[in-house]
Amino acid sequence: MTVDHEPVSTADGGEPRFSTWTGKARGWALRxxxxxxxxxxxxxxxxxxxxxxxGMGAVAALVYIIGSGIVLALNGPTWFHxxxxxxxxxxxxxxxxxxxxxxxxxxxxxxxxxxxWRGGRVLTWIxxxxxxxxxxxxxxxxxxxxxxxxxxWIAFQAKDALNAVGxxxxxxxxxxxxxLMWHITLLPLAVAVVVALHVVLVRMHGVVPxxxxxxxxxxxxxxTPNPATESEHxx
Amino acid sequence: MTKSPVSTSWRTRDDIASRPWGGTLRExxxxxxxxxxxxxVGLLVLGLSAVFSSPDDPSVTLKSWAQAQPADxxxxxxxxxGGTSGTAGYGPPYNSTPDASQKLGPIDLQSLSxxxxxxxxxxxxxxxxxxxxxxxxxxIDEWTKASDAQHAAWTTAYAxxxxxxxxxxxxxxxxxxxxxxxxxxxALLAMAQQGTLDPVLSAKGSFYNTDYKASILFLxxxxxxxxxxxxxxxxxxxxxxxxxxxxxxxxxxxxxxxxLYQVEPFKSSPNADVLVVFSMVILTLLLTLVPFIPGLRSxxxxxxxxxxxxxxxxxxx
Lengths: 235, 317
Fold this sequence. Notes:
Chain A has helices spanning about 20-30, 35-40, 55-75, 80, 85-115, 120-145, 150-165, 175-205, 220, 225-235, and strands spanning about 10, 15, 40-45. Chain A is an all-alpha fold and about 240 residues long. Chain B folds into two domains: about 60-230, no CATH class; about 235-290, no CATH class. The longest helix of chain B has 23 residues, at about 30-50. The chains are: A mainly alpha (about 240), B mainly alpha (about 325).
């Protein structure tokens, strides 16, 4: 098969120029997030603190939340009352949620004290906060789905706040069907999309440099080569 | 040499934070970190689940309530008939009780949504369930033919008599002008004790049901269900929204939401719920938009926690 529209290189920058919508979209994506940024083999030298593991920890916990949630959803919300395997899967769902929030909160406050929104990273901060808020609502609907005493009481108590702001009819905490729909479809989808967007933004903009970093710092004035670029050059 | 002030602005400018990092790098393996993270978190999840399991206190039923505390059940059923229960006077979305909705200054969002989940406590919680019995009590006729004023007189008299009776026991109430109320509440108690009220109250005679609001609201109007929650430290004044049954961690991330209910002006306000929700929305927006708020966004510079985070970098400057 022959291709009619080859990308045309610009005379000055040498970057490919595309003529189709698809090609332009690809060019835009490649400029914003080239493969070595998306899947890096090196990070700035200042990325060396335990605080950096909690973002990845939250993503790892989310993997277990989704996995255990799928098993629970396939067996129905009352399965864990009567099955020991169901009870164990329910436990993994609970504890991965607890870890998810713990990691996410540490990650959030770490990023706050780094003022990580600097240098055009404001959308990364906002999507992180959005992920936190949507996760809180998702977890709340999960507690309502336990079909036990706890969920009964949460439904009775939580209705007041929702009714007071006029959304109690559409978010009826005592309606198992409505809450199941929120918990296993719309809200997890929202969490997944916001978290994915957040991770892509982190990769696009890179990890924020230290406050007070100056051009005269040893780490900036005596730059060592990027291992990723180096390995490419060696080929 | 004078240092230029460190910017914590969100704007892209010609500074180190805005440019791609051109300094030293360290080796980093994204996939390896992901795999190690998944394995470590997996071990933590499996370990915590194996050791601590998860809570599962059985749900309360109308049957268990009627059997455990029949006097409380009858007193609550009387309040539902007389329209004096919490649900009867709740306002939207259940009914249109005047001045019952919570307001944020002049804004009444609760009323704005309208009565979208209508509940008439006398009809829905007492009369209609009794009408599903194979032999409906004759007292239903007497009730339905009487005026609202007569309903109120009968239920008030019976509620007062129950309050004065030893142990609030309906069997020990002295004779009085209670109309059909003792017969209706007695029949409902028998129905609940047999376990036939539970499916009828929520499903309303239909086969399918997913909406349990009628049962939950009826349970909540009594003192048995809230009493069980109180014993499990789950009520609002016990920071209940962030707690879980037993000694398990609950939704601890709701700590600030729960905390606001414990302090004035929220604690004693009739509009506590709408005020707390509004305050939480404002606080959440502040944190989300902190990069745009001068002063707040400078906190990381003024309180130098970053010195700890990047101590290696600063050490080798």
